[in-house]
Amino acid sequence: MSNITIRPMEPEDWDAVSEIYSEGIATEHATFQTACPPYTAWDAFHIKECRLVILDGGELAGWAALRRIDPRWCYRGVAEVSIYVGEKFRGRGLGSRLLTALCEESEKEGYWTLHSTVLQDNTASLGLHTKCGFRVVGRRERIARDCHGRWLDTYLMERRAKADEPAGYKRL
């Protein structure tokens, strides 16, 4: 078995991260995005904590990150998950290891709810999230069009922290 490592994402990882993100975009099942943004835009959109990469034998195989869903203080413990595994690394359990690590890290940082929006055709992502403790809390019908103009549904999946007040929770 290869040597698997999970560590915080660094700016120097961006070339590999963006390549994996572009692979996900190309599947047309992972995101409605049609192009990978430049690092500055991606960096501004995602929370600085809870950015992880998984390496297989020293090669960056996947990444996961969080973004806030709402800037209001009452939602400070709620974030949306992005997770991508490189094409040649899929189907080997790396996604579940990475998502599990992200969930653990998010609780250390005080997040109590993680959301994930999964496109209707992405059965692998539905399975991954379910395996890691997420549940479907809604289906948004005909919410957006793909790049071919086809209406698609998305599933809203949610995972609650194990404790009502995770380790990093901050009261007023």
Automatic annotation (TrEMBL):
Q: Which residues form the signal peptide?
A: none
Q: What is its EC number?
A: 2.3.1.-
Q: Which UniProt keywords apply?
A: Acyltransferase, Transferase
N-acetyltransferase domain sequence ranges: 4-162
- Per UniProt, the enzyme's principal EC class comes to transferase
Q: In Gene Ontology terms, what is one molecular function of this protein?
A: acyltransferase activity, transferring groups other than amino-acyl groups
Please identify the protein, giving its name as recorded: Sortase and related acyltransferases
Q: Which organism is it from?
A: Faecalibacterium prausnitzii L2-6
